[in-house]
């Protein structure tokens, strides 16, 4: 009963008799001097379990992460002399590989761990629409949102840009490429005819 009563009186004792308060805590509430180890460090996006052996004075806590999170650090921490062997591990969010049509990523992995940042690289002729750099955020979502690679006219096609409007009528890059080739061929045929006359 004594330790409990002391506990209830603790704030008052602390202000009036700091020394007595500390003495009381150490001798009455923490006979095994494991006082601090009664407070298990909690972690975000994960949980812990007391896995101490029943016959041991040593407190051992094991951590695990919620689904979609990966544990970084020591999964088990042990209390010795009132101190935890190390700080609690962290649960870091996992982000799925972003699907980029007509483009790729600076780092290729199946999954990415918060707070990893990747750079989106579009294929030749395509340009990034949105943020080129995206970061795996704490909730497992890419931020800002995954950009798109959009077809752009290639450099060095100035003569074709005159027919820009016509090209925009074509539904996809393949048709544009074919149209360009036909255009080049027609130019070459024109040159040939001109050189013969
Ligand atoms: C994206 O990240 C790369 C490498 O960290 C950096 O060089 C580049 O300037 C960034 N681009 C943008 C648009 O922020």
Report on the architecture of this protein.
- Keywords: Disulfide bond, Repeat, Signal, Sushi.
- Residues 1-35 form the signal peptide.
- Residues 35-92, 93-151 form the Sushi domain.
- By secondary structure, this protein is an alpha+beta fold.
- It folds into 3 domains: 4-91, Complement Module, domain 1 (Ribbon), CATH 2.10.70.10; 97-152, Complement Module, domain 1, CATH 2.10.70; 161-197.
- Helices cover 30% and strands 28% of the residues.
- The protein contains 5 helices and 13 strands.
- The protein has helices spanning 2-16, 18-29, 158-161, 164-168, 173-196, and strands spanning 46-50, 59-65, 69-72, 76-80, 83-84, 90-96, 103-105, 111-113, 117-122, 126-129, 133-136, 142-143, 148-151.
- The strands form 4 sheets. A 4-stranded antiparallel sheet has the order 1-2-4-5, with no helix packed on it. It has a 4-stranded antiparallel sheet with strand order 7-9-11-12, with no helix packed on it. Strands 3-6-8 form a 3-stranded antiparallel sheet, with no helix packed on it.
- A hairpin with a 2-residue loop joins strand 4 (76-80) and strand 5 (83-84).
- Helix 1 (2-16) runs antiparallel to helix 2.
- The termini are far apart.
- It binds 2-acetamido-2-deoxy-beta-D-glucopyranose.
- Residues 119, 132-133 line the site of 2-acetamido-2-deoxy-beta-D-glucopyranose.
The global form is rod-shaped
What's the alpha carbon Rg, rounded to whole Å? 33 Å
Give me the CATH fold name of the largest domain: Complement Module, domain 1
**How many DSSP-defined strands?**
13
Bound molecules: 2-acetamido-2-deoxy-beta-D-glucopyranose
**What is the CATH architecture annotation of the largest domain?**
Ribbon
Within CATH, the superfamily of the largest domain carries the name Complement Module, domain 1
> Mind summarizing the main beta sheet?
4 strands, antiparallel
